[in-house]
Amino acid sequence: MPHRTPCTSRAWARFGALNALVGLLVGLHLTLTSTGAGYWMFMLAAPVSAFLVGGGAWRWIVGARRTSVLRALCTGLVAGTVSHYFTWLLLSIALNITYGTLGVGGGSLGDPPAGVLEMIPGAFLYSFFSLLFYGPVTVLAAMAAALLVRWQAHNV
User: Fold this and answer.
1) Three-state DSSP state, 3
2) Which of these, 16, 42, 88, 146, could form a disulfide with 51 (CB 3.0-4.6 Å)?
3) What pLDDT score does 29 carry?
4) Rounded to whole angstroms, what are the CA distances from 128 to 47, 57, 70, 125, 138?
């Protein structure tokens, strides 16, 4: 029988923090293995996105309901997948801010970055490719993190 896990700030924050750690590691790997400039921004955007999406997914899906293994796995699936989309949106916002204030962050030919409104649909395409490369890592890690938070809540 599933046990009850209230949506405490500690449970959703723990899940978000574990996802943020994965986002940081993925951003670090992308930064170190990619050629070109600007990939360091993934080390900032991916953890922030993973924390916010992971914590939000925990509160939305788990909430104060019974935390079954299936619900925890679904929460991990949502967090590990949707965080890619929000990472691209955060990058778009950051690039537009740095381009507008400092004049840096545009394309390699000096053109401005895509606008935030253009990135709302564009982030889906970028997310598709980032999920191809990093999705197995982020989704499986988020599912494992959800099971760990569920286990901790049950045994504490």
Assistant:
1) strand
2) 16
3) 96
4) 19, 20, 25, 5, 13
Q: What DSSP letter does each residue of 53-98 carry, written as one string?
A: HHHHHIIIIITTSEE-HHHHHHHHHHHHHHHHHHHHHHHHHHHHHH
Pairing of strands 3-4, 66-67: antiparallel
pLDDT at 5: 47
Give me the residues paired with residue 67 across strands. Answer: 3
Q: Determine contact, residues 149/14, Cβ cutoff 8 Å.
A: yes
Rounded Cα–Cα distance for residues 127 and 145 (Å): 21
